[in-house]
Design a protein that fits this description.
This protein has three helices and no strands. It has helices at residues 2-33, 38-72, 76-87. Helix content is 78%, strand content 0%. The protein is rod-shaped. The chain has 101 residues and is mainly alpha-helical.
Length: 101
């Protein structure tokens, strides 16, 4: 009787091993080789995070630049003074001296 149970256990373990190999193979395909694999999902999630960081960075830059833009659109004199100070622009027949401290 005990020998019959032992033989049944060996047969059942063969099936279990076969099923585990097939299951492992299936999981490998899902994780690595499928179009919507877990690896691709991970990479896409990382790309989404980086794009969201860029969005927040540029939205902050826009918020910082809006007051400058409003200032420059205010009048021609303000625009001219900004261009002279920031970009060293000059009028015709004018000489600019740069003094470094």
């Amino acid at each position: 009787m005990k020998s019959n149970q032992w033989i049944k256990n060996i047969k059942n373990s063969r099936y279990i091993n076969r099923y585990s190999v097939v299951f492992a193979f299936f999981m490998l395909i899902i994780i690595l080789f499928d179009e919507s694999s877990l690896w691709n999902r991970y990479q896409l999630r990382q790309e989404i995070k980086s794009v969201e960081k860029e969005i927040t960075f540029y939205s902050d830059e826009i918020e910082q630049d809006l007051p400058k833009l409003e200032f420059l659109e205010g009048s021609k004199e303000e625009l001219e003074s900004f261009a002279r100070e920031k970009y060293l622009m000059k009028k015709k027949n004018e000489v600019i001296y740069i003094i470094e401290e």
